[in-house]
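Protein modeling request. Please complete all fields; requests missing the sequence field cannot be processed.
Requester role: graduate student
Desired output: 3D structure, token encoding
Chains: 1
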Amino acid sequence: MVPVHINVPYTMLLKRTEFVIEHQFYPEIYFSGDDLDTCHEEEARQLAETLLGNDLLCTIHGPFMDLSPGGVDRRIKEVTFDRFSRTIELGSLFKPRAVVFHPGYEKWKFDGNVNIWLESSLSTWLPLVKEAKERGLILAIENVFEENPDPLRMLLQKIGSPNFRFCFDSGHCHVFSKSPLSQWIETLGEYLVEVHLHDNQGEMDDHLPIGEGRFDFKELFKLLAFQGIKPIYTIEPHEEDHLWRSLKAIKRYIDPIVE
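Delivered output (259 residues):
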């Protein structure tokens, strides 16, 4: 059986810890910027001990709103670095299987000049990857607005570390990518450690349950199996009812350790 993670905001997890334990859910804990500002480390440590004591594996998702790890504004990058570093620090308490971040490349924002973003990104990620290595963590950058996998491939190749990997997001790919799904998996498969599973109609990032939009999950799992990739699977519901529907739907493709 395959462990499936459920994305849940940190503050919600604090309130619903017993629910997560009861159902033996493996959380992907999302830390927003506000969470990082208000979180007490002892509180996070106690939560981590509770989850680990109940044999619940974790992943971490860092903040992304307003942040730009490959941006050109020095002060924005300083804030971004501080947010990411704090996420790594707090996240390490949970002994996560991966820590996911958004890489921040948008064609329109950078006027199509990927090299501006790439060079700026290196100065952000290199020290963060070093910190992750020292803590025994894996960082994973997630596709968001990228129209093809090349910008992320370039960054992953430049960093060249086993502690810096890729998280494929099905919903983002379906809305924003102009490249076929097969190109994403073939290009970045060697770096792939996690897959975010949610659906949409190809127009908005709706976070629908698996199979209730138009993303080709059958093709995704076929491509992963062909390459022998066994990533971390994470469901990203925005409503509790969507969680149960996704858990039911995912059984068409894998046998998850969740009920």
